[in-house]
Amino acid sequence: MRNIIIISKNDELKRQLTSILTCTGYPHIYSSYDCMKTLSLVYRLNPKLIIIDMELPSIIFNDLLKLFSQPMKKIMLFIAPHSDVDANILILIKKGYSHFVIHPITEQLLINQVKEIMDQDNS
């Protein structure tokens, strides 16, 4: 199963992402907003994609990055719903993360990034 986890406290963003992903053929979508629930979901579901809202509080965001191992970097997609997270993006790029959808979020860009991650060998 191609499970997706969305990590965000923004209900509107979660609804928007869930709607787009479901219409694109990805119905197995779960959400979380804290490290403990996320960790539980990751080990239980073995997701093929983890979408992280870059507007999470910095303590949660940093704790999430500590949770994930090197191989998981290739299944992470960072969403920046607004344009004021540029410094964080540069830090993540230096750490080896490569999938981002930055303000303005377009449906086609999101779908392209999701397909790129889902189509790679995640084993």
UniProtKB/TrEMBL annotation:
Organism: Enterocloster citroniae
Keywords assigned by UniProt, alphabetized: Phosphoprotein
Record-level GO BP terms: phosphorelay signal transduction system
Name this polypeptide is given: Stage 0 sporulation protein A homolog
Lineage: Bacteria, Bacillati, Bacillota, Clostridia, Lachnospirales
Positions of post-translational 4-aspartylphosphate modification: D53
Function, in words: May play the central regulatory role in sporulation. It may be an element of the effector pathway responsible for the activation of sporulation genes in response to nutritional stress. Spo0A may act in concert with spo0H (a sigma factor) to control the expression of some genes that are critical to the sporulation process.
Domain Response regulatory: 3-118
Gene3D superfamilies: 3.40.50.2300
